Amino acid sequence: MGGPRSSSHHVISERRRREKLNGSFQDLRMLLPPGSKKDKGSVLTSTRNYLNTLKAQIYELEEKNRKLEMQLVSMNEARETTGWSGRVKVQIMKASDLSTELQHINVGLTVKAACDIIALVLHVLERLKEMGLSSLLSVDAYTYSSQMNLFARVNIKLQIKV
Amino acid sequence: MGGPRSSSHHVISERRRREKLNGSFQDLRMLLPPGSKKDKGSVLTSTRNYLNTLKAQIYELEEKNRKLEMQLVSMNEARETTGWSGRVKVQIMKASDLSTELQHINVGLTVKAACDIIALVLHVLERLKEMGLSSLLSVDAYTYSSQMNLFARVNIKLQIKV
DNA sequence: GGTGACACGTGACCC
DNA sequence: TGGGTCACGTGTCAC
């Protein structure tokens, strides 16, 4: 038949190989970002660049992820030690002389959270002033910390207008 | 010289092209995960799979990122809108009839935080019961959410013992 | 000695 | 007409 050693097996095998190879090239083209050049060389270099950008993207995302998790962890730690649903514990204290004279009322706030005690007191007093609710008898507030956990204690004694 | 049209330019050009192509193949091999087959076909298919896994990885990371950001945003919104130290806003509401009869007092809690409203109410009522402070007139509580941010509103009306 | 992978030169095609 | 790309058949090497 043909030339020496024209063994068509070889030809066909090589043909199949080429087809398979081109198929893989085609598969790759589909995965590349649109607008990329289509020739084999460009496919290869584009793929190279694309791989690098994807890897960089993954690195950035992982780093961002770590930071976000850090923030969440610190936030959760800050509140997981603060009581029931975790955030704040508010106690309305028993008025010491409520049953006798009915003229005073104690509002006790125990805030188990990292907060600014001064801002807290100012806030409460502002509210009371806005309300014109009562005349103020006394205010005492203090903070203390029990193993990394801040507590704010505020006692506000009011006299009910008569 | 050689056969017809042996124009060595063409031959050389084609040689250069092949070299360049093979160079790109080599570049690609370096980027693939170690242990991959090295022949051209395997390089192409491995690259294809690798691209897909990287894309999937990016998708997962982005999704995880979104969830984390969601949590952070809701947390921050929950505290940035609450005044002072940010965590919880407590308002003592003006008693509607305080100036006239002095027998009722409204305790209004607006908790701008993601919390369990039932646990909140139970907690407050427990405290009040412990204190034997007053008789309970009414309790109403509800939650509503304003764009991903949970609010809990509790109104407790007490009658002061006379 | 058959199978698969590779490089090569060559003809064809297209800006 | 010339540079770039492609597919093809073939020779060769390795297992």
From TrEMBL, chains A, B:
It comes from the Eukaryota. SUPFAM superfamilies: HLH, helix-loop-helix DNA-binding domain. PANTHER family: SPERMATOGENESIS- AND OOGENESIS-SPECIFIC BASIC HELIX-LOOP-HELIX-CONTAINING PROTEIN 1, TRANSCRIPTION FACTOR BHLH041-RELATED-RELATED. Belongs to the bHLH protein family. InterPro entries: bHLH92/bHLH041-like, bHLH95_bHLH, bHLH_dom, DUF7049, HLH_DNA-bd_sf. Residues 5-54 form the BHLH domain. The keyword Glycosyltransferase does not apply. This is Putative transcription factor bHLH041. It holds the Pfam family DUF7049. SMART domains: HLH. Signal peptide: none annotated. GO terms for molecular function: protein dimerization activity. Keywords: Coiled coil, Transcription, Transcription regulation. Residues 51-81 form a coiled coil.
